């Protein structure tokens, strides 16, 4: 039995605090502190900087810091819930809230590396990532398109699927989707012009396999129902508005059905997201980022979770970005509900994995 799961102990989850000039450090501290009695959220970031923010949020918040080398030497010590554990990964440059600095890009990346190392070493049962600024990592000289792709690459090139899940609320709460709207993406962070060429029968098939397997194994859905969007307007209008549906998406769905997967479509994306379709679905597979996520975020923003399916480890994240406009430390301008949900979802997935 690993140290992260031994009897009587809170599970330990790595929380990478994200872009230091954004809201990541603040929402990480707030969420970890709020959940400290049920989970040991080990914050990965600059200990001195996090201590300063914690003090600004609430002087009662205590941190217990250790170095990555100490973790490597002795494993994760048993700190109780009176303080938040921090693995110190120092920043290179002083941080000004809301102001990006490429000097700190590699330190942000180092928190992701430490989290992955920590799961592989058995220190952590899962990883929760606060938002980082993708451009800053690139400005620091490292080609980077997102956590999803980075985790896939660092986990041996695993094929992965980005899925966001949220609880409809407000004006969209009438969507009859208990408990959640889930939207997975066939492609992730790439220019729109590159999307068609990134779609293939084999790739879509593998994506459907991952969604089906992870919804069963990690979410306990016995026979996941997946609705697949078309790529083109009106799902191609019988080939008059594009042939990807006929040449790629339909054959991928047919092959998945032959493997026993309940996948249906392709549906025109503009009318797919309506109650009569969604009540028959556990997940919608959209062809690209801005086909699926604006709908999901309209319905659930701030109450959603981003989950990477297909990884050999559990990784969840928030449904929003770095919100530099709200990064005035300690003032509580940022909503940390999505961060708390990301932690809760990771915990549920840890429990489901046994
Ligand atoms: N998981 C991650 O690391 C993610 C990182 N990003 C990165 O974030 C950066 C900024 O992205 P944007 O498109 O500007 O989106 P954003 O989500 O940072 O901000 C969009 C709007 O939502 C508001 N908002 C965001 N989070 C909020 C919160 N917790 N509470 C209250 N209001 C909130 C912001 O104030 C802003 O008005 C980009 O570099 C992007 O790559 C974006 C999404 C996910
Ligand atoms: N819009 C979702 C998003 O950008 C999340 O990306 P990732 O960093 O979690 O891969």
From TrEMBL:
Note: The active site is located at the dimer interface.
Assembly mode: Homodimer.
Assigned GO CC terms: cytoplasm
GO molecular function: 4-hydroxythreonine-4-phosphate dehydrogenase activity; cobalt ion binding; magnesium ion binding; NAD binding; zinc ion binding
Tagged with keyword Oxidoreductase: yes
Similarity annotation: Belongs to the PdxA family.
Pathway membership, UniProt: Cofactor biosynthesis; pyridoxine 5'-phosphate biosynthesis; pyridoxine 5'-phosphate from D-erythrose 4-phosphate: step 4/5
Record-listed a divalent metal cation binding positions: 189, 234, 289
Keyword entries, A-Z: Cobalt, Cytoplasm, Magnesium, Metal-binding, NAD, NADP, Oxidoreductase, Pyridoxine biosynthesis, Zinc
Designated name of the protein: 4-hydroxythreonine-4-phosphate dehydrogenase
Pfam families the UniProt entry points to: PdxA (PF04166)
Matches recorded under HAMAP family: PdxA (MF_00536)
């Amino acid at each position: 039995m690993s140290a992260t799961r031994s009897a009587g102990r809170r599970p330990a989850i790595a929380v990478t605090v994200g872009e230091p000039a954004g809201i990541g450090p603040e929402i990480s501290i707030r969420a970890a502190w709020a959940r400290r009695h049920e989970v040991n959220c080990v914050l990965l970031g600059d200990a001195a900087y996090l201590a300063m923010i914690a003090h600004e949020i609430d002087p009662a918040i205590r941190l217990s810091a250790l170095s990555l080398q100490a973790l490597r030497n002795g494993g994760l010590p048993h700190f109780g819930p009176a303080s938040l554990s921090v693995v110190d990964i120092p920043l290179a440059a002083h941080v000004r809230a809301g102001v990006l600095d490429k000097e700190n890009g590699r330190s942000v990346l180092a928190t992701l590396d430490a989290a992955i190392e920590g799961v592989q070493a058995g220190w952590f049962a899962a990883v929760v990532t606060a938002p980082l600024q993708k451009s800053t990592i690139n400005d620091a000289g490292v080609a980077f398109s997102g956590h999803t792709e980075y985790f896939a690459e660092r986990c041996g090139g695993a094929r992965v699927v980005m899925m966001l899940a949220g609880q409809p609320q407000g004006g969209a709460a009438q969507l009859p989707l208990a408990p959640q709207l889930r939207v997975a993406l066939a492609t992730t962070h790439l220019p729109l012009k590159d999307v068609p060429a990134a779609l293939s029968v084999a790739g879509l098939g593998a994506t459907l396999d991952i969604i089906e397997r992870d919804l069963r194994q990690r979410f306990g859905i016995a026979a996941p129902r997946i609705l697949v969007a078309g790529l083109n307007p009106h799902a191609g209008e019988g080939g008059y508005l594009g042939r990807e549906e006929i040449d790629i998406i339909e054959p991928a769905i047919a092959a998945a059905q032959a493997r026993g997967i309940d996948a249906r479509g392709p549906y025109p994306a503009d009318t797919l997201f309506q109650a009569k379709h969604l009540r028959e679905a556990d997940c919608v597979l959209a062809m690209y980022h801005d086909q699926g996520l604006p709908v999901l975020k309209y319905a659930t923003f701030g109450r959603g979770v981003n989950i990477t399916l297909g990884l050999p480890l559990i990784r969840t994240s928030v449904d929003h970005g770095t919100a530099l406009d709200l990064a005035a430390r300690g003032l509580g301008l940022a909503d940390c509900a999505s961060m708390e949900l990301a932690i809760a979802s990771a915990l549920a997935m840890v429990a489901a994995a046994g």
